[in-house]
Amino acid sequence: MLDVYLRGSVNRISPEAPVPVVSVEEKEERLGGAANVALNIKSLGAIPIICSVTGADDASKSIRRILKSNKIDSGGMLQAPDRITTVKTRVLSRSHQMLRYDSELTTELNNEEEQWLLKKITDVITREKPAALIFEDYNKGVLTSKLISAVIAVCRKNKVFTAVDPKKKNFFSYKNVDLFKPNLREIREALNKDIPDINLASLNNVSVELMQHLSNKITLITLSELGIFYHTKNEKGILAAHKRDISDVSGAGDTVIAMITLCLAAGMPLADAANLANISGGLVCEHPGVVPVTFSMLQKAMIAG
Description:
Strand order of the largest sheet: 7-8-9-10-11-12
Radius of gyration: 20 Å
Distance between the termini: 34 Å
Structural class: alpha/beta
Number of helices: 9
Largest sheet: 6 strands, mixed
Order of helices and strands: EEHEHEEEHEHEEHHEEEHHH
Strand content: 25-35%
Oligomer: single chain
């Protein structure tokens, strides 16, 4: 995805409707979606390779240009002439978001595109032997149920750690993955549960139910201002959120999945990995717009306690 920011000032109300008129003074383009996850991975010192599908349009060119400037491999990306690249455009004045409008196509990939992407992912896994693969699901039609199952099988065959940031449509398609990271709202919608009391016992029950459906090894549930919950068969816990001066929550989930996956792939204990992911997700919320976490941000947070 491409995140576009239009910044300007508001000095009057439109005579046509009771809405503010924003005089645009600046336009900025940033990586969004799975590309933002890749940017987080890159900023933390690892090497990301993106395999995905965009349209054959100006937004796709912008994504490739920004990826190239950040030295991120875009060789696994297909341009599909019948699709458009997802673009989220935010209109801001004095760091306040006045409006957001999206341009996107969410129909599923056709068979040819699906097979092309599967082949590209398989080739990358065979050639690069990655430590981990992250499924970034945004319900935009790229991750189909058939593709998900096929990619998981390839990863299991090649002993590649699999992590998932899910959405509702294919929530239960990610069987036998290593790490499953929904947020609380996604859990409630997928399991049709209210979960009025957010505590260790209730979240443990939810995680056990998830594992019965998915046979995943690790569950990580982000709880917004309440922190983060982690669970395996042998350990579980809730880490409280750190107090932050929240500016924008956009991209926090991208940062969490990037950090937890890198930590676990590097052999860090789950509780420590979850703690770093929890800190990282909060840190990026202090900045307007979608930004990646950096070592500098982490160092300052650690020193501050």
